[in-house]
Amino acid sequence: MKIPVKALSTFAVLGLGMSSLAACGSASGEATSGDTLTYWASNQGTTVEDDRKVLEESLARFTEETGIEVELEVIPWTDLYNRILTAVSSGEGPDVLNIGNTWATTLQETGAFLPFEGEALEAVGGQDRFIQSSWSTGGAEGETPTSIPLYGLSYSLYYNTEMFAAAGIEAPPETWDEFVDTAKKLTIDTDGDGQIDQWGVSLAGSSISNNAHQAFVRGLQAGGSLFDENGEPTFASDEQVAGVKQWIDLMATDKVVSPSNAEFTGGSQMVEDFAAGNAAMFFDQAPAKTLNARGFENFAAAPVPLTNPDATGDEATMSHVAGINLSIFNETDNEEGALKLAAHLTSDEEQVYLNKAFTALPVLTAAYEDEAFQSEEIKLKQEILENNAKPMPLISQEGQMETLVGTAMKNLFAQAATGTVTEDDIRKALEDANSQMAAAQ
Amino acid sequence: MSQLVEKPPAAGSEPGTPQGPAPAARRKRKSPFAYILIAPAVIMELLIHIVPMILGVWIAFLGLTQLNIRNWLRAPFVGFDNFVAGLDPNGPIGGEFLASFGRTLVFTVIVLAIVWVLGIMAAVLLHSSFRGNGFLRTFFLIPYALPSYVATIAWAFMFSQRDGAINKILVDDLGLLDERPFWLLGGNAFWVTVIVTAWQMWPFAFLMLLAALQNIPKDVYEAAAIDGASLWKQFMLITLPMIRPANGVLLLVMSLWIFNQFNVPFVLFGAAPPESARLVSPLIYQHSFSNWNFGLGGAMSVLLLILLFIASVVYVRMVLPKGKDID
Fold this sequence. Notes:
The complex is a heterodimer of chains A (441) and B (327).
Chain A: H1 5-17, E1 36-42, H2 48-66, E2 69-75, H3 77-90, E3 96-100, H4 104-110, H5 119-123, H6 132-135, E4 148-153, E5 156-160, H7 161-166, H8 176-186, E6 199-201, H9 208-221, H10 238-252, H11 267-275, E7 279-284, H12 288-293, E8 299-302, E9 319-320, E10 322-328, H13 335-345, H14 348-357, H15 376-387, E11 389-390, H16 398-418, H17 423-440
Parallel strand pairs in A: 1-2, 1-3, 6-7, 9-11
Antiparallel strand pairs in A: 3-10, 4-10, 5-7, 5-8
Helix pairs in contact in A: 9-10, 9-16, 10-16, 10-17, 16-17
Chain B: H1 23-30, H2 33-59, H3 81-87, H4 92-127, H5 133-140, H6 142-145, H7 148-158, H8 165-173, H9 188-213, H10 218-226, H11 231-242, H12 244-259, H13 263-269, H14 280-290, H15 294-318
């Protein structure tokens, strides 16, 4: 028998070459009807299994109150976005789901989610119950939100109290200059072998999202912004370059960050670095659970240092409005039940229970009266979330912006780890990202 | 030597027309059983490959974004705009795509060379009988048997600058380097991608080449040895020519696999690899699934298909032996 080499080869080319075109699969039919709802939850705790236990307790109370069963699926962050994308494109998703709040505007534009207005808004108790900065992440400015806040988060500065005491530093830094000086004092060779083994700061240099968050905050503090009033990208404005330079310089110029941090792809590595005693300070949203799990207690939280201590408005921004939102699929066969579930998860009692379990911040003002949220750390983060946090740009290409700016900064950290980075390098990297963003708009 | 003798035409048939099969054979050919047997495979092939492929080509001509993802039929037809954006060397998108294409080409050539050399060396070694042959065959197949994601994550740990096994060996144990290099950043990221891809793929080359070697009659080598041919001459003048058909297909299939490499850079570096390791497939993923620009991602895929198709057709016509040579 002859081997049809040409035919086989042609078929192989077609099959292999087009494999990437066939990437859009279809989701399994998830939306349910009657007395059962499906709920996709994001992974907030240390493991998916932990989250399931926490949520099942809350959902059992919901079933008891309403008689509606809930099929729960906790989805890791690495998969959640693509699962939602598949659900949106196929029209077959869950009834209720969690989304990262920075995705809200992009997902809103798909038209796949229920707008929270009229009876739907009344069902969750109205807008005024919520912390307004968190509420503002529900969708594009001026449009009816298609998601409501569920868990709140904000960045703050975490520092090792023992290292501060050993260095004779009495209070955390309040300005960026003080922060850099403090970091330099804490960057030391503790065992005298000529190698630095305690660094002032830990950061995740290869984390696209962490880099993008810092570009946003540091840019605002420097008087810049990632987009102008017309929605045009301004990644490489003088102010934005100055803000990003502050962040990159921690490794490139100030030498207070270990070059190995350029490889850190996620915040967890940064937290581990801090807990292992390799660094004295870091910026994060909710590391307490990880630190407590490791039995690490010598830490405290402080406001994110400001470039200008007298700044007000945007220049006093310390964090983006971080958090998780809740949406309802338009395709649901049980809108009333889905709204009841949304109301349950954002009720005063469940907000206390859930945010306590996940060490996140309640998104309701009233929930902060509970004794679980009276610690200094929580009060500080609540203050930042309410008064010193701005939503990431509420545009449909937010994800693309994070990818472009975050990747540019990742590459700058890679350069800093192995050589030098000048202001021109930073400007060039941000200009390249800016031109790609503009071309895609 | 046998001689073909043309049979006289059967009674009733027109002269000059080809003879049909015997009535029994004709009945056999009309039997639907064979078609029923292959129908599930054909249907699945259509559903899994062909239909999505056609949809992919269609998407390339649409402005398909998050605005119309719920109803593809409403996505605006944009003609060749996505292709123009992908091919414009002066534009940021086209410039990146073309640079990535060139990088992927270099990557493919390097990995293919490594994979083939390792594969043929191992195949020739294990083609002969010796103690431990079976163990080595199994051992060599481990990279191919391990799940790609698991193996790549393990490599990422090993290449870590501070705590990775590679730097521990090179710097701490052997003292070959003074400083711990970054393998997952900058230009080294390309070479890490080459190493991990080659490590995962070479067992396939080894298996295919070993199977091809086993089809060469031993007496050919014995005759060559009697004539005084060295092992190198036997390899160059007997082995390579006799495995040429299998080798040709192997090189084609592997080069296509390598060119479309996605898992290794994605697992090593995430959705945004360092520039040196930004291959075409992860770039297409980024445009489609991070930026929600499915039309542009589709156009890049189609461009990739066309370029690979042309290259493959040229290869098939110029390099592969004709079908009659590989009966």
